[in-house]
Every structure is written in C-alpha cells, then in structure tokens.
Design a protein that fits this description.
Blueprint (H helix, E strand, L loop, with lengths): L1 H4 L3 H9 L6 H17 L3 H14 L4 H8 L2
Helix pairs in contact: 2-3, 3-4, 4-5
Length: 71
Amino acid sequence: ILLSEKKQYDAALSVLAHTQANDDAEAKQISLTSIDILNRANRYPDSLNQLDTMVANNPDDLDFLYARSIV
C-alpha cells in the first residue's frame, strides 16, 4: 500500500504477486488489494479483467461483486 501511495504501482503489484497467502481469506485480500492498486493506477481494463475472473469463480462473493460495481 505504501508503494501505491507513492505512485509506484508496478512495484506494489509485484510485491503482491509474490506474496504467499496462508488461507482463502488472505488470498482474497491480496486480490482485492491488487484490484485497488490497479484502480489507483487508472488501469481499469486490467482491474475489470481480474474482477470478472474473480466474480466468475466466486459468483456469490459480495466483496468481489461490490468491487466490480464501483470500477
């Protein structure tokens, strides 16, 4: 998050991509954080692509549905 606040979006995304999740909840948070960074970077098509995949795999997940609705 600190990297994204300094507008070092690619570095922040790289850190998240190399982060190992310990459980499903942590994996979900990593995904949502990556999506948030993509949005901050104005990379909306990339954000929507990730969210479309997440919603397709988790159609009842309110967090992914909400994130998809605000992009």
